[in-house]
Amino acid sequence: MVAVIGGLFVSAQPALAATPPVDDGAAARPAARGAGWQPDIRALDPVTIPGTTKKVTPFATPLTPRQPEALPGASKGPGATLKADSSARAAVRKVDMPTFRGTSPQADPDDPPTGLYCTEAITRSGSVSGTPNQTNYAANVSYLAEFGCNFWLNAAYIATGVIDRGRFDGQFLYTTAPLTYGPTYYGATSGGVSIPGELFDGGRTVEIAFELYLVAPAGVYWGGCFPIPGLRYLLCEGLGTNLLHIVLGTGPFGTGLQSPVIRHVALGDSYSSGTGAPPYSDASCRRSPATYANLITGTPLSGLPVDRPTLAACHGARITDLYASQQSGVPPQLDAIQPHTRLVTLTIGGNDLGFSAKLTGCYLGADCSGSGPLVTPQELYQVQAQLTTLYRQIRAEMHPGGKLMVLSYPAVVPNPDDPADPQPAQDRCPDLGSNLVESERRAIYEATVQTDRMIRDAVLATGDSRVVYVNGLDLFRGHRLCGTNGVWANGLTSPLSDSFHPNASGYQAMATRVAQVLPPL
Question: d(Cα 498, Cα 429) in Å, to the nearest integer?
């Protein structure tokens, strides 16, 4: 068995019981939007090797690299050699050894092959199409596997496949339909697979495997599995019998795909865009490098790092802005989701309740203590129904194995009924105390609690375990406005739109919470 890179056997070839397929690599194309990708493995029933009672299933035997081996006294050949006495050897029908594109198999000039032998070759090629973070990003691997002998075999049975040798070591990514031959001295099979790098975490390093069952003529038996330059043995069994079972591999090689990551899209309103923590990379949407979505970059999730997000969240966004353009030049936020998006983070619904505007109004003089709740049950009911529909839509757009992390809003105004929250006094936070009396602070906190419950209930209503509620309500406890151990939110500030939003420390706290509760994919 001789390794060949870039060559075909060229000879007058016998009639074959099956014609080797020509595969243009279309066996496993990247799947349609949201459908994911699975390796293309053909489930085949056991077959009986011609001329034997041996039933086999392709690649059913565990494959591990092993050293070449031979029986004592076996003649050295370029691969698998027969061992026979002179009378049996004389009865074997010989042929001229096939060549590789007109070039004879190379042998050691100091120890040339003798006797009867077979040799194999695997020719492979590969390319990468598209670019990372795009749906057409894929590694394309194709190959031709051949065997040739200098004598007639009674029968042969061959199959090939592509094995992951990286993250999913040993998993087959593609297999060809096996081919069965009657009396022959040559056989070939080809195949190819396109591995979508954004839909599959493996396929960065692979190996092509070539499995053969070779039936020798009656009266002779196999004597050795000798080395093959450029190939390695993954299996060699049947020495001393007339049925040799071998698997050869190319050894691991890179496909050109970059290391896999968890693609992340950050959707929602100002609490996801980063409002309150300037400077902004996008002034109109107030997108800040300090937002929690950026800060969880690199966090491990199912053994892979979370990628830097596509930050589509925008200040002032309402639920409808995820479906339609919020402002000129800003596409609908849902457009940012791709089939390979496996993490979506989201805050939304506060603007639909008018919560920020109501809070600012309370601070600037509106009476918020006795004129009814800041958010009504009807408002909560309507927004909850819209949120449940939105969550389901997001899940339909993203990778089916991904997670949608829905954050509720941190309470930024101190809770008058919580001793952990320092309250305004004349010598500390007098402005907050004079603008928001205790009853107003209590009403604001209660409205935040109701909003938190609404978001939680909307998540539960999806019935989807991959939609995850992240409790942010008490995240700033002890660090709300007037806190004595660091304040994690802005009070009334300039510009007014930054008021009552997290500051950089608040977004760091949100990032820490999300990283802590990220569930495995």
Answer: 18
